[in-house]
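Figure 6 in text form: structure in, sequence out.
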């Protein structure tokens, strides 16, 4: 396993990061694994040298942190791991049990630490950009969390580039702890972050971890999987002809090589400039091994052309724009001529 520094920090993380959204309880979503099903996948990742594990309090409404926390406590040494968790989405009831207010952030970090059975997380991340809370309030609270030793670093996820620039500006102005990581969605079927966010992170020395390298399962080559048939986000984000054409290109390249579709899609992500680490949300040990193989899969110019030739621009996917505007012309309307 290769280890690289996360941004300009001294923190070293594995090139593969274990994604855990699929670990917790199927009571939350039908494609979620329970603790017994999750442990072999975590064990394989640790055996392969993965030290970077991504969580969120939102996953299985807290049960995900509890399950993964118990597993890693059995299998690993805490000081050898880089644990990251996220805050923002609703967990529990009440108007203040969500977002990035000082009240919620302070309560959420304590809840995450309790569920994970640890004194600190390595990277505490904003799950999105909260438009309803002043940036100064949020970053002041996160700075206090770092100073209290409950988090070693902070990070962010899924927002517009201008919003991230605003966060960095506030941190610089007030001397707050600065984010070291941006977690974003990137894959062959969704490349909008290449326009602004990736170049911005490279310029600012921010590490980038990528989630959804398989486009929420679209690029896995298994359209009948439980995830593909029950995750409505897949339909929202990737239900268009361009995405399906890209999936066919991934399958063609994989078939020519004699490897899995997932390996090709993941190799494409890992080969992109500015990518520090790629999240792997494997449903089996075999799937995780496919991601390991992607680390050593170098795509040719012709293969890259095939994977990229069908891509067309689309809306940025974030918490404000999940369903894409169809990439076809809209129906005309009768013009009303102003007097």
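Output sequence:
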């Amino acid at each position: 396993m290769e280890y690289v520094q996360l941004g300009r920090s001294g923190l070293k993380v594995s090139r593969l990061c274990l994604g855990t959204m699929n670990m917790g309880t199927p009571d939350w979503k039908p494609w979620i694994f329970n603790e017994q099903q999750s442990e072999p996948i975590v064990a394989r990742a640790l055996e392969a040298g993965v030290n970077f594990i991504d969580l969120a309090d939102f996953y299985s409404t807290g049960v995900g942190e509890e399950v993964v926390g118990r597993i890693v406590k059995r299998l690993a040494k805490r000081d050898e791991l880089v644990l990251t968790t996220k805050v923002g989405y609703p967990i529990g009831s009440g108007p203040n049990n969500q977002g990035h207010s000082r009240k919620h952030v302070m309560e959420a970090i304590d809840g995450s630490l309790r569920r994970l059975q640890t004194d600190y997380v390595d990277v505490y991340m904003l799950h999105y950009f909260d438009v309803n809370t002043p940036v100064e309030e949020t970053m002041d609270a996160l700075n206090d969390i770092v100073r209290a030793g409950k988090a070693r670093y902070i990070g962010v996820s899924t927002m517009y580039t201008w919003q991230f620039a605003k966060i960095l500006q506030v941190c610089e102005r007030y001397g707050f702890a600065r984010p070291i990581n941006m977690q974003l969605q990137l894959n062959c079927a969704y490349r909008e972050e290449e326009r602004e966010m990736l170049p911005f992170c490279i310029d600012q020395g921010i590490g980038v971890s990528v989630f959804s390298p398989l486009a929420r399962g679209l690029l896995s080559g298994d359209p009948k999987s439980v995830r593909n048939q029950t995750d409505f986000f897949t339909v929202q984000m990737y239900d268009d002809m361009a995405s399906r054409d890209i999936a066919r290109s991934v399958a063609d390249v994989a078939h020519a090589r004699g490897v899995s579709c997932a390996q090709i899609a993941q190799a494409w992500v890992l080969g992109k400039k500015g990518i520090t680490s790629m999240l792997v949300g494997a449903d089996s040990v075999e799937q995780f091994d496919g991601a390991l193989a992607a680390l050593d899969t170098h795509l040719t110019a012709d293969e890259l052309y095939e994977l990229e030739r069908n891509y067309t621009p689309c809306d940025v996917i974030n918490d404000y724009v999940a369903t894409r505007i169809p990439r076809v012309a809209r129906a005309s309307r009768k013009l009303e001529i102003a007097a």
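Caption detail: The chain is about 40% helix and 15% strand.
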